[in-house]
Design a protein that fits this description.
The protein is of the alpha+beta class. The protein is built from 2 helices and 4 strands. The strands form 2 sheets. It has a two-stranded antiparallel sheet. A two-stranded antiparallel sheet has the order 2-3. The longest helix has 5 residues.
């Protein structure tokens, strides 16, 4: 199941730095996960300080 980033994102960039698949990029207001690149490893959910990354 793919992950998505909700409005709780504070654009800290921690998730993008830790993503082994380089699937997370900065968007307009929050970061975004490229579903085609995401390997669903869950690393981003473990490091997100606001718990803004959830399963779809």
């Amino acid at each position: 199941m793919a992950y998505t980033i909700n409005d709780e994102c504070v654009s800290c960039g921690t998730c993008a730095e830790e993503c082994p698949a380089d699937a997370i990029q900065e968007g307009d207001n929050t970061y975004r996960i490229d579903k085609d690149k995401c390997t669903e490893c869950g690393t981003c959910t473990d490091v997100c300080p606001t718990e803004a990354i959830v399963e779809e």
